[in-house]
Amino acid sequence: MLARSIADAVGRTPLVRLPNLSPDGYEIHLKLEGHNPTGSIKDRVAKYLIESAERQGLLHEGSRILEPTSGNTGIALAALCAPRGYKLTCVMPENTSEERRQILELFGVDIVLSPANEGSNGSVRVAREMAAADSDLYMPFQYGNQANPQAHYETTGPEILADLPDVTAFVAGLGTGGTVTGVGKRLKAHDPDIKVYAAEPQYGDLVYGLRNLDEGYVPEVLDQSVLDSRIKVDSLKALRATRALAAEEGIFAGVSTGASLAVAIRVCGRLPKGSKVVAISPDGGWKYLSTGAYAGGNVEDIAESLADTLWA
């Protein structure tokens, strides 16, 4: 595939069946978004955020962009901003992985750290304060920008339908809400009977970049009417599923993938035999090696040691 620029290399990621982890009588398929240029599903969102702003005349060479992120969106924005001559500042929780900080620094991004105990909500708060104090900053704001779910409605959803037109159900982690909203709407436009499930962390669980809606902030882009159910998953189940994915299917993914996979396995019990479930793998595991999530040892002890680590 010949791409004219890094932006043109975004999307068209593999959809891979999981023969060993699918329950008997069901098929679980994983959409491997780690195959995007900077290694995550956020490449799709960043492309739409930037190109939408450009069409509206909001950006020009030398523009200063500000965005709250737990890492992946910032990295995706950085890759697109660099060749365009935009200056990027990312606000991110201080407990994000070291790999993410180093990648952002490589792209020349200015990093502002928000309190770890506030998770991604803290990054949103700090970024909003900075934007209010400096009118020259442009904040795309993935949490409230309709370009976010639009990216998934126009790209991720159609890719899934092209590869698996008889999909029965869809599972994605609940972060900004863009993926589950955009893909969910596109799948239901194809077939209203397709079920859409959001993997949601347990209350107070600062893990894998997902959010519990009961903790006070509901992203503006999330359309809850698309959801058939929000299903809770804890960090231990997510980590176990992530490790099983590597051991049994040969797929090295981030822990947020484990969260979606754990929910996908669970919802099979709610669906008729023969159902085909698609789950999102937002990224690979490469950006998390420094956290110790993939080290040897007792998985319960590792999960406990990672209790204060933010994932996405």
CATH first level of the largest domain: which class? Alpha Beta
**Main sheet properties:** 6 strands, mixed
Unreliable runs: none
Q: Determine the mean pLDDT.
A: 91
- CATH topology descriptor of the largest domain: Rossmann fold
Number of helices, where a helix is a run of at least 4 consecutive DSSP H or I residues: 9
Named at the architecture level, the CATH assignment of the largest domain is 3-Layer(aba) Sandwich
Distance between the termini: 28 Å
Q: What's the β-strand tally?
A: 10
Radius of gyration: 18 Å
Task: Please trace the helix and strand order, writing H or E for each element.
Answer: EEHEHEHEHEHEHEEHHEH
Modified residues (N6-(pyridoxal phosphate)lysine): 42
Domain Tryptophan synthase beta chain-like PALP: 7-283
Binding site for pyridoxal 5'-phosphate: 72, 175-179, 256
Keywords: Amino-acid biosynthesis, Cysteine biosynthesis, Pyridoxal phosphate, Transferase
